[in-house]
Amino acid sequence: MKDHEFDPVTPEEKAAREQEAEFARRVRREVRRMESGEADEDIRVDQQREAEARAEEDKRAEKERRRESNTLWKWLSGTILADEGTSKYYPYMLSIAGVFFLSITVMFMSLHLDMKYSRLDAEVRMLREKSVRMQELRFRQTSYSAIEGRLRARGIDLTDPSSPDTIIEN
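The structure assignment produced for this chain is given below.
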């Protein structure tokens, strides 16, 4: 039978101690690098990279800010509607849009009525022409010479009285 000794250190504690030891080794190695001057070049390169990244980010932010402040871009992208200064003009813009809609409606109604008037005017002209033709036809059929010709065709003589029998007074 094997005798096992009791180890008061748990596996989690062992792992934590190993991690702390590894961290301490890395710190000592980095301190030696700094003391020898090897780390100065790495630090300078890291600072330079950070500065370039910051400059690039600042440039990008400036470009975006300039683009967002451009009024034409605001109109094209629609962000002008979200501006705080623009939102107070919404009632005016809505009333102007309403007036535009009303004026377009009135314009189309007037065009429709104008077309209807033109159609009715043409119809009235045709009726006037028809009326003139019918008057001419009636005149031809009821004129003195037409009546005289009809009576002659039937064999009836038409004589005009020399003086009227009765005088009509007003």
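Interim note for the steering committee: The first helix runs from residue 11 to 36. DSSP finds six helices and no strands in the chain.
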